[in-house]
């Protein structure tokens, strides 16, 4: 099969590799859509290294058609349309025992320790099949929509950490795919005002189209003044940092009211140590949380919200490329000209 092989940092080679076969308990999918994540870009640029192998196939947001089932697999058959939660926990470490399988001490993931979906076929490990990580999807949604259940599930995890709810004033920093998903989730959760901060005009337009009350260009407007204006000087109830710019973590602290919540959703580059006004956290009793990956519960919820049309993800896909144009695809994703980039192998 053809696969986009990550051979070294900054190097992806489209090449022929052996087509995976389904071993006992495994299934093999014909990949129909795989979307490029910000994390894939960080992996490509050598800024994320945990679980990354060379050579390997990356790509962890995907959906496809079952083409082969291994011995002992009962619940799937060739032709099934499925999408996959790629984060595979061990189910027995202290974190898994406490409902935090997303940060499992022995966590592995498809697109990291296991070859991912920027290829014609992807093998789903037996632990993922048996663990309930493969979800059947209805005919009503497109492959790329199902692929986006993964990032949406991560966003649901973040929304829970930020405790977004009825009547909240929410600020979202960054209107890339992740920010635009957070926006829709916050709206669905009953947020009263949602302010999105984003320097790119086309992304601000999309934010307004998807329900933002205000889309601020942080280079042109004073975001803090806008937020104070809307909240009678108090500040937002919650801020979600949806882009991994270290300085934003500190800015976010100044945007929330006393007792407000800041969720550091986006990952930062390894070694980033931004200065932080720790007294803002101290005196204002700010709750700062992080979010890493997702659990099966988040994935399933995301998929069902997409199927129900509560969260619009098709609108986020701005570019589609065949596998042959993997380089153009990564360029489009990195350039920020579009929003979400999908590969259709
Ligand atoms: Zn992702
Ligand atoms: Zn575990």
TrEMBL record:
Its cofactor is Zn(2+). GO terms for molecular function: oxidoreductase activity; zinc ion binding. SMART domains: PKS_ER. Residues 7-343 form the Enoyl reductase (ER) domain. Keywords: Metal-binding, Oxidoreductase, Zinc. Pfam families: ADH_N, ADH_zinc_N. InterPro entries: ADH-like_C, ADH-like_N, ADH_Zn_CS, ER, GroES-like_sf, NAD(P)-bd_dom_sf, Zn_alcohol_dh. Signal peptide: none annotated. Belongs to the zinc-containing alcohol dehydrogenase family. This is Alcohol dehydrogenase. It comes from Caldinitratiruptor microaerophilus. The lineage of its organism: Bacteria, Bacillati, Bacillota, Clostridia, Eubacteriales.
């Amino acid at each position: 099969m053809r696969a986009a092989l990550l051979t070294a940092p900054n190097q992806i080679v489209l090449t022929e590799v052996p087509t995976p076969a389904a071993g006992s308990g495994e299934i093999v999918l014909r990949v129909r859509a795989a979307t490029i994540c910000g994390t894939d870009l960080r992996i490509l640029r050598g800024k994320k290294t945990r679980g990354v192998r060379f050579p390997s196939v990356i790509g962890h947001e995907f959906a496809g058609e079952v083409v082969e089932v291994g011995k002992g697999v009962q619940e799937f058959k060739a032709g099934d349309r499925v999408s996959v939660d790629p984060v595979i926990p061990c189910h027995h470490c202290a974190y898994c025992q406490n409902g935090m399988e997303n940060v499992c001490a022995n966590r592995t993931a498809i697109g990291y320790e296991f070859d991912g979906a920027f290829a014609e076929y992807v093998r789903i490990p037996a632990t993922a099949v048996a663990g309930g990580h493969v979800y059947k999807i209805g005919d009503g949604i497109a492959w790329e929509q199902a692929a986006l259940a993964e990032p949406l599930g991560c966003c649901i995890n973040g929304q829970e950490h930020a405790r977004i709810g009825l009547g909240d004033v929410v600020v979202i920093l960054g209107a890339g795919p992740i920010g635009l998903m957070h926006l829709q989730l916050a709206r669905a959760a009953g947020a009263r005002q949602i302010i999105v901060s984003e320097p790119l005009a086309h992304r601000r337009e999309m934010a307004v189209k998807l329900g933002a009350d205000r889309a601020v260009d942080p280079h042109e407007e004073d975001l803090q003044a806008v937020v104070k204006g809307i909240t009678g000087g108090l500040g937002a109830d919650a801020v979600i940092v949806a882009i991994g710019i270290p300085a934003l973590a500190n800015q976010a602290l100044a945007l929330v009211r006393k007792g407000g919540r800041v969720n550091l959703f986006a990952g930062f580059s390894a070694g980033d140590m931004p200065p932080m006004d720790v007294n803002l956290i101290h005196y204002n009793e700010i709750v700062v949380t992080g979010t890493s990956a997702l659990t099966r519960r988040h994935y399933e919820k995301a998929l069902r919200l997409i199927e129900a049309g509560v969260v619009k993800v098709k609108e986020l896909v701005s570019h589609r490329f065949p596998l042959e144009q993997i380089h153009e695809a990564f360029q489009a994703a990195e350039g920020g000209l579009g929003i979400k980039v999908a590969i259709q192998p």
